[in-house]
Every structure is written in C-alpha cells, then in structure tokens.
Amino acid sequence: MESFLISIAGNIAAGKSTLTKALETRTGGKIVSFLEQVDYVKKHGYLEKYYKAVSAYDRLKGTKLNGNDAGEFLKVKKEAEYWGYKIQETYFLSRLLDLGVLNELLREGQSVVQDRSIYEDQIFTKNSNAYEYITDEDYRKYQDLFKLVMHNKPNPDLIIYLESDVEALKSRIVERSRGEESELAKPENAYLSNLNDLYRPWIMKCGYPYVIIDTEAIDFRTTEGLECVVEGIIQAVPETERLFK
Questions:
Q1: Nearest to 42 by CA among 179, 134, 170, 174
Q2: 3.40.50.460, 3.40.640.10, 3.20.20.70, 3.40.50.300: which CATH number matches 5-244?
Q3: pTM for the full model?
Q4: pLDDT for res 41
C-alpha cells in the first residue's frame, strides 16, 4: 500500500504540533504523527542561549559606538555567531536522524504527518546568515552539507504551510509560556517577522505540492476547521482521500 509523508511547516507557534496530532486522530491512525525530537536542545538550554545571544546582538546593531564599545560589540557578535551555527547544526543533525526513522515507517507502508521538516532548516539558516548570526563561511558549509546528505532522502508528498500574522504568533508564545521563547514575544523583537518574510517565497518555490492555511481564518482545533484542512490535502494530493474515509 502506498504511504505518504505530509510535513507541517510554519513559523514558531503557528500550530504545527497541534495540527499534526489532529490529523492522526482524524484518520484513526492511518496517518501517524511524528513530532520532532528536540529533547537534547531543550535539556542543554540551547534555544534560550541562542535567542538571548541573537537578541542581544540585534539590540546593539543600531546603537552608536565609541572606541570603548568596540570590544563589547565584537564579543556580543561572536556569541551570536557561535550560537547561530550551533543551534542550526544541532537541529539539522537531530532532524537527519528523524528522517531515518521516517524512512523506515514509509517503507513499511505507514503514512506519516511530521511537525516540521528538515527542509525548513534552510529558512532558519538563511535568516541567520542574513542577520549575521551565521558567518558567510559557515553558511556555505551548511549549504554544501545539506546538498550532500539530503541526496536520496524521502521527500514530502505534501507540505502544509501554516501562515500566521506576527502578532498572533507572539500572542500564542505568551499563552504557552515556554521560557526560552520569551525574548521573541517582546514588541521590539523582529525575529518572527524576519522568518515570516522568508516563508512565503520558500513554500512557493519548494518544488513539492503544498497547501497554505491561514491560521487566523481557519481554526483547525475545531471540527469545521480541520475538515477545511482535510479538503485542502485531498485537493492537492487526491490519492490521500482513502486515509480520511
């Protein structure tokens, strides 16, 4: 029996995990949910250190410097570059391991819905390079590594992109109260906005079938909203209809 890999994409707090689990329930297990494994990142506080480092660098970018400030500026910049590459490298390796597990499930005929694919790493890495959290040299190194290791890996049959306004994302971050994300919810923090600017062109150029869901217009936590998502999936990949019967 043909199996399908559906990847849920979207900015931080867009609702990826919620939709992933909802689709598993809706299909009665015909699609199993696969949540990204980030225990190592959380256990070692990498995310909190990353967000603090890049936010500190962003705050310094627009300030005037005198001769006494140069050393501090370079120190903060170096810290941002260290964590910028460290977090991306760690996530990439973790998602690469996940991809091996996913591949086995697909080979066994099990369809899977995944709450962020390794392909989205390209968005975060591009953003980090654009805002100087990753050096040009490390960015080129990452791109070369991605091309090398992703050869012959399973591709998503469909990507569902959850599009959200930045203010809605910040509101959800506050509601779910994850300490490491607190910096992102601050009014002056542009991190989520910068990512949003990259997501739309990425999804339209990704080369895979995709569906765009406006999370402010469609609440997939409700039966009606979830059915709208299901209709979009079937329309994009008709063969998936059997999974929802």
A1: 179
A2: 3.40.50.300
A3: 0.90
A4: 66
